[in-house]
Design brief:
By secondary structure, the chain is of the alpha+beta class. Helices cover about 25% and strands about 10% of the residues. It has one helix and three strands. A three-stranded antiparallel sheet has the order 1-2-3, with no helix packed on it. Strand 2 and strand 3 form a beta hairpin. It is elongated and about 50 Å long.
Amino acid sequence: MGFDNAHGVRAAGSRLKRQPEASDHWHRTQEDPGRPYEFKDADTLLEDFFREVRRILTDRGISEAVVKVEEKRK
């Protein structure tokens, strides 16, 4: 799953639909070619990203609880 704007994505449904000018989109899976995403601001993008992360974790039966955090120094 990921949100990006590295390449354009076709609008779903019809070849006759007007294609979006922006290339912002998100992928639900690695195989998903992408779905248009309407970027509003960074806060909304982060909310949408973590909502999808939680959905995927729940679908796979994985807890979202942080088990351990290690600080790494350079």
